[in-house]
Amino acid sequence: MEEFSMSENAKDLIQQEIDRNPFLVLSKLVYQQIYREIINGNLLPQHRIVESKIAKELNVSRSPVKMALAEMTEKGILEKVKGKELRVKKISYEECLWIYEARMMLEPEAAYLAAKRIQEKELEVLKKLVFRFEKIDQTHDHLEYKNADKMFHETIVKASRNRYLMDMYKSIECPLAMYRNQLNQLAYEECFQQYGMEKGSEYHRAIYRMLEQRYPMMAKDEMKNDVQRMYGTMSRLRGCDIKG
């Protein structure tokens, strides 16, 4: 397994925060940066997490790193392998099903509310993302797809203007990102061809149009159609393993 290295951005951010407020709880700051590395797809299941290396790269002692890693292990974000080695937990098919069910409960309702409450600046963000999806349909750039899809759905959830719904969606942010990142390591080209991902702009454009025209029920239905595609793609994780 390849040893994980913190990104330069993460190193800069943590140093900026320490400089800004030297009384911050370091373990929480380290936790946030490692969490971001997972969300952004920089830290993956094939990486071996070395406590001393992270501490050195972030220019902090091993104690806050140890505390942060312990908390992430307790929450099921990380897992121990071969006794003491740590890595990002692999998402099982059953967990994918839970994520799918949660998304089907949350995101169509978010689209319904967003059609009533979305602001022009948010519609502009979604419009630009639809253009990005049109390019992705041609290039099949799975990393670009992952990032654009994440931003598209998060923008709509935010546009719902419902704090409790946003908090619930936030609770599946990490496992959803881990699912997307893990899928990227498998037969992503096959997913593009078999499960409608090569037509991502069509699904996202349909949602955008219903939001733009302020049609709540139709926005809800179009979001259901989009989330439904996850049911096909997540089946790629059944029986698959990531080498490392």
Describe the structure.
This protein is mainly α. The protein is built from 12 helices and 4 strands; from the N terminus they run βααβααββαααααααα. Strands 1-2 form a two-stranded parallel sheet. A two-stranded antiparallel sheet has the order 3-4. A hairpin with a 3-residue loop joins β3 and β4. α5 packs antiparallel against α12 and α6 (120-139) packs antiparallel against α7 (142-159). The protein is globular, with a radius of gyration of 19 Å. 32% of the residues are buried.
On the 0 to 100 scale, the average pLDDT is: 89
What's the overall geometry? globular
Q: Largest sheet, if any?
A: 2 strands, parallel
Helix and strand content put the structural class at mainly alpha
What pattern of helices and strands is seen along the backbone? EHHEHHEEHHHHHHHH
Find the count of extended strands (DSSP E, 2+ residues). 4
Q: How much helicity do the residues have? A: 55-70%
How large a portion of the residues is in β-strands, by DSSP E?
A: under 5%
Rg over CA atoms, rounded to whole Å, is: 19 Å
Which stretches are poorly predicted, pLDDT < 50 over at least 5 residues? Answer: none
- Give the termini distance in whole angstroms: 5 Å
